Amino acid sequence: MQPTVVPTKYVCEELTGEFAEYWKTIQEDDGNGLEVIQLNALARWHAFRFKFGKRTEEYALPHDFFVEIFDDYFFLGSLRQYIKVELVDEMPANSDWKGISKRKGQHVFLGLPEVQIEIKRPPNQLWTKELIQEHLDTLLHEMTHAFLMIYSSTAAFAGSWHYPEIVETEGLTGHGSCWVVVAAAIAAEADRSLGALWDKWDLGIANAQLSEREALRRWHDCESLNMIDEQSG
């Protein structure tokens, strides 16, 4: 997998299938075959010392540091020239979202979409292991959206008459089968490689599928609901 050279308009299913197969092979070989950029990212991750017990208002997590590590390890350094991460105090009204990703036009020189990732700022409380992991889970969740926004050709841009293709790829909420495949591959590899300090990584796949189900239910799309049930096992 070489996402740094993935062409624009790469088909969503092809991109996600290649991504999942790459990480499956890495996991079966217990990490053999990782690139130098990925090994360096792992070394930086394991060398970092988290400051548990400090209050969120006095100690901000170094988001740029984690963006670089996650980008280098999971996406081979292909994202951060196209993404911007910001902490915000509010999410969309009537939502319990902790993050959101938005397309912000095209990169001036390279022609690929630029993506703004917004992460909800935690309230003033102590940084615990659970709170930090939830925060980093959210960052990885949104970076997964960014990866697909930047490197795959979405059916949504083709128009509403391609509704079946939208449901079967990016989904009505952005959590269709393509996102699920990439998120599941990342979560499995994070569990394997990011270390004993953490519980299982949770990119919110189950909740994302629930939101997709609700969107489909509003469209009364029983066939696609059955497809999600099959993916959920």
Short key terms for the protein model shown above:
mainly alpha, 3-stranded mixed beta sheet, two-stranded parallel ribbon, 8 helices, 5 strands, 11% strand, globular
The Cα radius of gyration reads 18 Å
- The count of strands amounts to 5
Q: State the separation between the terminal residues, measured CA to CA.
A: 27 Å
Helix fraction, binned, reads 40-55%
Strand order of the largest sheet: 2-4-3
Unreliable spans: 1-8, 155-161
Question: What is the overall shape?
Answer: globular
Look at the structure and give the mean pLDDT.
80
Structural class: mainly alpha
Strand portion: 5-15%
Please outline the major beta sheet.
3 strands, mixed
How are helices and strands ordered from N to C? EHHHEEEHEHHHH
Helix count equals 8
Q: Can you put this structure into words, describing what you see?
A:
The structure is a single chain. With 233 residues, the protein is mainly alpha-helical. It contains eight helices and five strands. It has helices at 12-28, 36-47, 63-75, 129-151, 163-168, 177-193, 205-218, 222-231; strands at 10-11, 83-88, 99-106, 113-120, 152-153. It has a three-stranded mixed β-sheet, covered by helices on one side. Strands 1-5 form a two-stranded parallel sheet. A hairpin with a 6-residue loop joins strand 3 and strand 4 (113-120). Helix 2 (36-47) packs antiparallel against helix 3, helix 4 (129-151) packs across helix 6 (177-193) and helix 7 (205-218) packs antiparallel against helix 8. The radius of gyration is 18 Å and the shape is globular.
